[in-house]
Amino acid sequence: MIAATKSRFHRRTAGDNVWLSQAGDNAQAVLTSLTSQRLEYEVLESEEAVGQAMLAELQVAAREKSGDLTIILLGGRGAQAMHRLLGQLAKATEADNLLDRLNVFTQDALAPMRMENSFSFGRDFERLLGWDFFRKVKSFTSMRTDTNDLEAGLVDYLEALESLAEIDLLFLGLGPEAEGASHLAYIKPGSGAGATDLGGVIPISRDILEHHITKFKAGGSAVSEADETECRQATHILTLGPATFLRAKRIVQSIVDADTAPAKRASFRRLTETEISDDGETRQRQLNDNPGLWIRLHPNVRSLVLPNLLA
Asked: Please, is 145 exposed, middle or buried when counting C-beta atoms within 10 Å of its C-beta (0-12, 13-18, 19+)?
């Protein structure tokens, strides 16, 4: 399912993980040039309030820029309230001038898996956003999980993303990992992601698989036993890499599901309390052990959480 595909990207392996970056980029130099930030977070009262705040971010970006907007939708449960609000707006006409400027990217992560599987992000977006949204946006691009060459499919996706001048907004969440670690997108601990990696194909872990399935069920997706069986047979994950996060002009993080994913409490505490080293080798080791820390190397982040995350 994975081949050493020829492309303009540099292909690097870290154990069983395959990472793609722009040829010629110096990962160590980029990593040491980044300034570690404190994660300043806002505690809101409800998922609806989080969704409204996320939508407001999109509306501000639209007012401040003419022409097309490029956004990346990640974040699982945290973004669902915003998705519902966008779906409601798409049924009317008041937001058409915003919607028809949107180039939307997401990641359908688990592979191999049919794109029609109810555990795919694409089907969940259809449920929450509705067909009017898809009809009105300029483009909607997700990763292909049903191809015989996963790496070639990821290359096509990255080329589409890299062809655009900038990423205006990236919406993401935070996934729990053992010992209070965390993942962003689906970069798991020990996967060897570097500062210049745009995306990767990595072996799936049981923890991430269970987190993915639990998240979809808790979020209200109508799933079938056959779809869950297929989902559990996935062998790899297609994921965005740190360089894609760092390229975004602004990141909006949302974490709303600590009740159904209580391990996020320890993950968030470790994320906010870790002192990130200035030494390049030590910093890379910290990020490999706890990929959630990549968000703290971005200078323009807004983190939205619910009180149950801090209990």
From this structure: buried
Which residues make Cβ contacts (< 8 Å) with residue 7, sequence separation at least 6? Answer: 20, 155, 159
- Enumerate the domain spans of the chain: 42-309
Structure tokens, 241: 């890499």
Strands (DSSP E) along 98-165, which ranges? 102-106, 110-111, 139-141
Spatial separation of the C-alpha atoms in residues 300 and 248, rounded to whole Å: 9
pTM of the model: 0.91
- As a whole number of angstroms, the distance between CA 208 and CA 2 comes to 20
pLDDT tens for each residue of 18-66: 999 988 889 999 999 999 999 999 999 999 999 999 999 999 999 999 9
CB 225 within 8 A of CB 99: no
CB neighbour class for 124 (10 Å; exposed up to 12, middle 13-18, buried from 19): buried
Domain spanning 42-309: which CATH class is it, in words?
alpha beta
Query: Which tokens belong to 96?
Result: 């058409």
- Helix (H) / strand (E) element for 43: namely strand 41-43
Please state whether the peptide bond connecting residue 307 to the residue before it is cis, i.e. omega within 30 degrees of 0. no
